[in-house]
Amino acid sequence: MTGTSPSQAAASHRPWPMCRFCCGIALDMGSARTRAWIAGEGVVVDVPTVTCSGTGTVSPIQRGTIIDIPGCARMLRRLLRHRLPRFTRPVVIVAAPVLDGLAYRTRARAAVDVLRPRSVLTVPSARAIALAVGADLSRPLMVVDIGAHLTEVVLLCDGAITDARRTALGTGDLDETATPEQIAEAVASMLTAMLRQDRTSLTVDALHRGVLLAGGGALRPELTCHLTGRLHVPLRVVPAPHTAAVRGAAELLQAAHTHPSTRRPAEDRHPG
Q1: Cα separation of 187 and 146, whole Å?
Q2: What is the chain's mean pLDDT, rounded?
Q3: Cα separation, 220 vs 38, whole angstroms
């Protein structure tokens, strides 16, 4: 590609799935479920996040943290290697928990290396969720993402993370160590803390606009009912909330496909 301008590179790169030289994968690796989107096919993987060990099946990801990089790599190889065209090096974008930062991205990239990626990018899951529903990112937006073992509350302004909180509670804890009321109270407490510490009007503006609710928790009527009663602000459940993060990552992936930076050897990149 030496001597080729960005516009020429984009023009020579055919849209997915017609490009013969590369493919793209969007990943959302959660504590309970792993979801993958492949260019031209859509969401092709939605399975429990487990891998095999000498003692049986174990989860390589717990409470949003990758604790077993080799196990995570084995899982990705088993789920995806046979789905990739031969002799291709995919562009991979991973939806990552907002507050795990560099640690999660570093471990995710190490696990994804098993797919021989040409480029690896990460995107905060809250931003991916907003992109999946075409939200107006020019205005403050509050995203609540309730997963199986982790809940994040994130304030986005101009698409960037302005404030974020998390609790190690989720739908997997219901009927065991937590109730819907406790999760709703935890979300309300995080929002209250954000309001108290925000010396601008951004948090207030986002709450007046309404909370965007995603993750598997958005599929639990008892949970959304308690959230509605506790928050006293509009609550907007995104369509197919459990796959919103991987679909939003796919939106970014398709834009990244023709970007010149994705033609360089794989390295960790973070588009926001």
Answers
A1: 9
A2: 86
A3: 28
- Cα–Cα dist 253/122, whole Å: 10
Per-residue model confidence as pLDDT tens digits over 158-196: 999 999 999 999 999 997 789 999 999 999 999 999 999
Q: Which two tokens stand for residue 123?
A: 């995107």
Domain check: are 90 and 144 in the same one?
no
1 in any annotated domain: no
Helix (H, G, I), strand (E, B) or coil at 181: helix
Tell me how far CA of residue 92 lies from CA of 27, 48, 53, 116, in angstroms: 7, 20, 26, 10
CATH number of the domain encompassing residue 18: 3.30.420.40
Q: Residue type for 81, please?
A: R
Paired strand residues for 152 = 145, 166
Dist CA 59 CA 68 (whole Å): 8
What is the span of the domain harbouring residue 207? 136-238
Distance CA 248, CA 21 (A): 24
Q: Tell me the one-letter amino acid at 30.
A: G
Helix H or strand E segment including 28: strand 24-29
217/253 same-domain check: no
pLDDT tens, position by position, 92-139: 999 999 887 788 889 999 999 999 998 999 999 999 999 999 999 999
How many helices and strands, by DSSP H and E, does the chain display? 8, 15
Count of domains for the chain: 2
* Cα dihedral sign, 10-249-118-79: negative
Both 97 and 232 in one domain: the answer is no
The tokens for 265 are: 């050897």
